[in-house]
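Hello,

Our lab assistant flagged a job as stuck in the queue for most of the afternoon. It eventually completed. Since we weren't sure the result was trustworthy after the delay, we are filing this so someone can double-check. Below is the sequence as submitted and the structure that was eventually returned. Let us know if re-running is recommended.
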Amino acid sequence: MNSAPIGIIGGSGLYHLEGFTNQKWIKVKTPFGDPSDELLTGELAGRSVVFLPRHGRGHRILPTELNHRANLWALKKLGVAWVISVSAVGSLQAKYHPCDIVFIDQFIDRTKRDLDHTFFGKGIVAHIAFAHPICEELRKILLKSARACKARVHDGGTYVNMEGPAFSTRAESLFNHRSKFDVIGMTNLGEAKCAREAEIAYATMAMVTDYDCWKEDEAHVTVEMIIDNLRRNAAMAQAIVVHALPRIPVEPNWPCHDALRNAIMTGKSLWPKETAKALQPILEKYL
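-- returned structure --
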């Protein structure tokens, strides 16, 4: 296993995988606090894999409590160069049915957590390009794998990232629907921003569980509905991940893997030692 590991962020169904061997839980300390949980390393479909339970084992962490910086720093520290995010979302359009998968390519940010979604500050300024927030190369591999697995898939879409933990009001849901946005969730934007800064290729498998509350002829979203459809989605998500892993390149040489090259504004001679030390896994090739 000489290739860079592939990270997977998702729920428990994704590490109870047949063929996921040499499993070992590893605790990673970060300068940004604790990740959601220990990270599970192992081998799957011929590749090194690092799995992170997004909300912790047992689902103990609210979306607004997620420490995206710690999570992505920990993955970077373990050498991860690609991240597959498997996430539950609500559908904002009739064409996205529960148990469909939307391979999103855009975000709308409805959070208030900008400083929690960047590694920079404290003396080092960087501005990453984020016009295309999802790694297109990884997204296309996942899309092809999903089609090979006969999943009901949609190519492209906009993910509205709200904060929660309450679901949308009906007025909010109708606004998002009428704005032609595609799905809504509470977690992926912060992951995507931190992944880009860490030069990790990141793509989302948005697993539709409900219709939010804009659609009058459907039951409004409940936790029970989400859990039931997550269970139905789990087997398909597993199959897609296993199919996709061998198709991801061995060497990280996509544009996302070079995202910081022209993004750092602060001259290296001015970098505070403490800040540079904290960002060592991210800045290593620029030190």
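-- support follow-up --
The delay was a queue issue, not a problem with the job. The result is valid. The chain has seven helices and eleven strands. The longest strand covers residues 82-91.
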